[in-house]
Amino acid sequence: MLDRIRASVRRAGGRSAAAATLLAAALLPGFQGAAVAAYPEKPVTLVVPYKAGGSTETMARVYAKALQEQLGQPVIVSTRPGGGGAVGATVVAKAAPDGYTMLFAAASALVWPPMTQKVEYGPDSFRWVASITEYQQALITTPDKPYKTYPELIAYAKAHPGMNFADQNALSRSFIKYIGKKEGVTWTAIPTKGGGEMVPFLLGGKVDIAWSGGVHQKFGDKMHVLASFNPKRLGQSPDAPSLKEIYGIAMPSYAVIVVPKDTPDDVVATLEKALKEASKDKAFDDMVTNKLKFPNQFIGSEELKPLVADMVTGLKTVLEETRN
Amino acid sequence: MTTDHRETLVIGLVVAALSAVGMLWLIPAHTNPAAGPNDLSPALVPEIALGVCLALGVLLVVQALRRPDAGAAATAAVGADDDGPRGLRLARDLAFDLSVWAVSCIVLVQLLPRIGFIATSAMVLAGWCVFAGLRSIPTIVGVALVVPVVLDRLCWYALTVPLP
Amino acid sequence: MILDQLLAGFGAALDPINMLFMAAGVALGIVVGILPGLGSVTALSILIPVTFYMSPLVAIAFLVGVNKGGTSGGAVPAILLDAPGTPEAAATALDGHPLCKAGMPVKAMKAALYSSVFGDTLSDILLILVAAPFAAFALQFGPAEFTAIVLFSFTLIAGLSGRSLAKGIIAAGLGVFLSTIGLDPVESTPRMTFDVVELYDGISLNALAIGVLALSSVIQQLFEMHRGGASARQSISPDYDPAKNRLTAREFWSNWRTLLRSAAIGSGIGMLPGLGVSLAAFLGYGSAKRASKTPEKFGTGHLEGIMATEAANSAVVGANLVPTIALGIPGNIAAALMIGAFMVHGVVPGPFMMESHGELIYSIFASMLIADGIHLVIGRLGIRIWGHITRVPRTVILPVVVVLCVVGVYVPTQSMFDVGVMLVFGGLGYLMRRTGFSIVCLVIGFLLGPMFETSLRQTMLMYKSDLSVLVSSPIALVFVLLTLYSLWRFARRR
């Protein structure tokens, strides 16, 4: 209870009208209690904007179970794939801002589509509640290829124009274009609907290289990491360079949980606390660190704000470079 | 011209007209052009689909007009229904049925979020039972009361889904 | 080698608690499958959290049971009410309901159940024997091969269009058109969405299928009764006679060719990621009709039609675990949910699953075979219960089904928009039924449309607009030739 009030007060700082109400709420425990106890009073939906069977969806199911214990209400995972996350994000942006619909997605799905296409949301359409892990985004291939390292790949691609590159969304496609432009190579981006479709294409030799959001870690030495799209090198593949080292750009890598922007502060505070507790859940931790091999790192709404701003400026650079 | 042919003619005309509207206005106005050099236009598949409908709609019209008297042959070729003469009655029935259906749907959709699942479905059940010719009042009341409550509880306890 | 491991697996699987949960799973699956709109997928996604507290073997065995039951349960409303809740049972209704009207509902349900169990068992055996090698074969399938398969599947329309081929193709064209509504699969730009956010995902297959398949049929029967076509007390199967409802072993096995063919089709489709149960069902029905010496009997209450459909759709259940277990790639949504369940229980599906969890995998295989037996027993007991439904007057049961349809659409997504979509398609389906358009063709068009478009466009990009791959890839060539062959055969027969 005390934590909850403290969180509300912290959230309220700087917002005049809301702050006044919340301060009153904090000072009058009875009032605060009534407002918070109202949420959640019915099942909460966790929208995952990707096809079932991917790492996000699997993670969401285990996390939903942990979250369910914290919230005391069922948490229903609903997959709404399409548009590289844009479909699910639109659904949540337009949902009632009552805390009963939240989105669990890659941060890029909330930042990138608004810059490039006509979607009806932007990074500001959401309250960014938390980030619970980082995707292990990599440029991958199969070990039978003649190129084993990133420089070798670039050399090979220069000699063999028209290689097929499986992307999974418009953002990975843009990064592929960006690299191609910087290095002067041409390759074709093949759209796939998530890891479930990319894996058979790559293993079956239909594409030469692929962008992976982390699924490659399930396949051990059957897949080979050439480079990291994250700001840092990946924990599992410390020898592969990150694109940031080479080009100074990186892809947003956070898995975030957001709610519609007008969600009341007290609801967000309740949610953030529950999310934080749920991320300490034993089964979830085991799943994330040992099975998916993702880092289990919780980032709250306050620390997330500057990171979001960074992402927006970073992606604008890539966009401007690839546009002309 | 037999009623079967008149029916085929009308169906063909309606199909052709609707497909034409779709191809000429709906699809061009509501799709974007392709972005990449090797990609197909997003409008291509819907255009093909409606194009096929348009062509076959015209075919139905032509066949109904060309062989107005050779009833059996045309029916075999176009394969229209073999339920016998019914043309006008069919149109009248459909107009009536579809308006009843539309009204009942509007009522259902409007009431469901307002007065909740149990009350709405009780009304729907009773309404359709009477409409279908059931006259036993105890049965109607029983069904209308028991089924919605059972379904509502079942969804909540077994499937954890709250009905409106 | 396999046999030893399997025997050890049976040792673990024959545990009474395991058996009990499998039985519960099958029973739950059948009950959920019977409700229109709720099939294996809904049942699995709801029940996976329940398994968090079970041991891995019991949990997976329970879910396997749910999946099996859910796929066969759909046949019951299709036969009794002509109201298939899912597209996978749509072809069952074509022959099942006429049999029911002729007073043989129990016989039809028996044929459906036995064929289901047969297809399922065969597909499980196949899974156990060939999981690893066949997974490598599945990798041969890329966008070009999928394009060819979908192209071939379009020729199904010819066999399912009913009395008028032209109207059948129009219905399929409408289905394809409807399937293109939503965000473009490659560019993610909106298509005919009118800025309605619920349409960004496209029209929900669940809502469309329940509307045109189940609801429209119920509406039609309601209006017929309103016009006094039948007396108020009339039951679903007025001429029910227990003597006519016996299904002899000879009668059943005389269709062994059809059963084997459908089981093979279902297993093949199941092993390829992304094609789905409904396509298997339609392909099974279509090819049985094509191979039959008496194709005109199909659609009039022909036992073979039911068997062809049910053997094919149930054969997908085991086989779709082949890519799941061997590659970690889900064969369809149900298998994707199973992957999630595996991971929750500490098993990572993929190439290392057999090595690191061999014992568990063989126990699961053994459980699947046992579950087939359990399925037979419970399904048979169920038929006795469903048999009683046939005595309820139609004036009572049909309005109840209308409400069930509403619930069935609402439950998976909790979206009022989908309920509205279903009601609209109920009306459209009724209009199509009365004017002689094939509903099944509409659904096939809707299913195949997006598969065709996405695969074709991926092929165009992958091979730089050079479609010669459709003849240079041996697998694609086979399906292209099959397509041409069926078109030629069809043209010649006319």
Describe this structure in words.
The complex is a heterotrimer of chains A (324), B (164) and C (494). Chain A has 324 residues and is of the alpha/beta class. Chain A is built from 13 helices and 11 strands. Chain A has helices spanning 2-12, 16-27, 29-37, 55-71, 86-93, 108-116, 150-159, 170-183, 195-203, 243-247, 265-279, 282-292, 301-323, and strands at 44-48, 75-79, 101-106, 126-134, 138-141, 163-167, 187-191, 209-212, 224-228, 254-260, 296-300. Chain A has a 6-stranded mixed beta sheet with strand order 2-1-3-10-4-11, with helices on both faces. In chain A, strands 7-6-8-5-9 form a 5-stranded mixed beta sheet, sandwiched between helices. In chain A, helix 2 crosses helix 3, helix 6 (108-116) packs parallel to helix 13 (301-323) and helix 8 crosses helix 13 (301-323). The longest helix of chain A has 23 residues, at 301-323. Chain B folds into 2 domains: 3-84; 93-159, no CATH class. Helices cover 77% and strands 0% of the residues of chain B. Chain B has helices at residues 3-29, 44-66, 71-78, 87-132, 137-159. Chain C is mostly helical. Chain C contains 23 helices and 2 strands. Chain C has helices at residues 2-13, 16-34, 40-47, 56-73, 75-81, 90-101, 105-138, 143-154, 156-160, 165-179, 205-226, 249-253, 256-271, 277-291, 303-319, 321-327, 333-344, 353-389, 394-413, 416-434, 439-462, 469-472, 474-493; strands at 182-183, 190-191. A two-stranded antiparallel ribbon of chain C has the order 1-2. The model of chain C has no long low-confidence stretch (mean pLDDT 85). Chains in contact: A-B, A-C, B-C. The interface between B and C is large, with 70 and 68 residues.
